[in-house]
Amino acid sequence: MPIPENISREHVLKALKEIDINGVPKKHDARNTFLIYAGKRYPPKYVISLTNKYANGEFLTGFTTNEAVGYLKKLGFKIEKITLRKYPPGEFDRRMYPIFKEFFMLLEKRLTAVIEGRSELNAIWQESEDTIRYMMFYALTTVGKIKPLDVYLEYPHPEVPNRNYAKLDTFVAPAPNKNRPAIAFEMKFHKKINDNYVPLPNNAGAVFADILKLALFRKQQKNIKRYMLYVADENMIRYLTKPGNGYEPFLSLEENTGFKIAREYLTEKPRTFINQLKKIHRQKKSSQSLLSCAGSRGTSNWQIRISH
């Protein structure tokens, strides 16, 4: 059924208000295409279906997402579309996979032991970001046979002007024989501490600030590989995977699949998110960054993801 031409912007705003109150049924969630309004994201097709109730008294079906997008654009609404593509791993990425496999195995064992009560710790939140660093250090120096003296923690980041944030979590110097490039890591571990309030948009901003920090690190240097290690508990997983919050498809990327992080993807977010980015990069215009998945593991309680 064609979209009725009597649907107006005012009708759409009423539908958006209804969605704010009642949410979006799971079967109508959008994954890659969103209507953006007042810092929130909505599924275009469901919006039009719901809007028709206010214009013509019934829930509309029988049209496509592309038709909904075109109609909403005609009414002046902003649309964001994220295109997923396959990004086959390069030769060095494949060489890193055994290291990542060891890292995943170690961290999975550690977190599972906590969950099952076989650990010295009582809860996941008692683990720290240093645990991630140590597990990766171990994997690099054993499976990867990288010399411990080539691994630097809290390495200076010359491209970040704010001194409090001008450190790279881990830097591996290139091999003298040039068979191995330099490797840069940023690592983040988000978990809920007891019942304390967690500023979720602030946490999300910190993740993407680290991704931005990686993209800026020695940006013009070709002989370098960059990896983001992210561990999140169920609290952050729920927040980051809720389509309306606008962080898809970060945690749902399949291995060797990615998307370009456009400026709009970062700027149409809550103020606390934006403030995290400003700590790293204050310029209004920045080039696009590519984010793809190098591997992930997880349960309903936690997720481990390596992006590059």
Strand composition percent: 15-25%
Query: Which H/E pattern describes the elements?
Result: HEEHHEEHHEEEHEHEHHEE
Main sheet summary: 8 strands, mixed
Q: What strand order characterises the main sheet? A: 4-9-10-11-8-7-6-5
Approximate helicity band? 25-40%
How many distinct helices?
Answer: 9
Whole-number mean pLDDT: 86
Summing up helix and strand content along with how strands pair, one would put the structural category as alpha+beta
Distance between the termini: 43 Å
Q: Give the number of DSSP strands.
A: 11
Specify Rg, calculated over alpha carbons: 22 Å
Broad shape: elongated
**Spans where pLDDT lies below 50 across 5 or more residues:** none
What does this structure look like?
The protein is α+β, with helices and mostly antiparallel strands. 37% of the residues lie in helices and 21% in strands. It contains nine helices and eleven strands. It has helices at 9-22, 44-56, 65-74, 91-115, 129-142, 200-216, 234-241, 263-267, 271-278; strands spanning 33-37, 40-42, 78-81, 85-86, 151-156, 167-172, 182-190, 224-233, 257-261, 289-298, 302-307. Strand 7, helix 6 (200-216) and strand 8 (224-233) form a beta-alpha-beta unit. Helix 1 crosses helix 2 and helix 2 crosses helix 3 (65-74). The longest helix is centred in the middle third of the chain and has 25 residues, at 91-115. It is elongated. The mean pLDDT is 86.
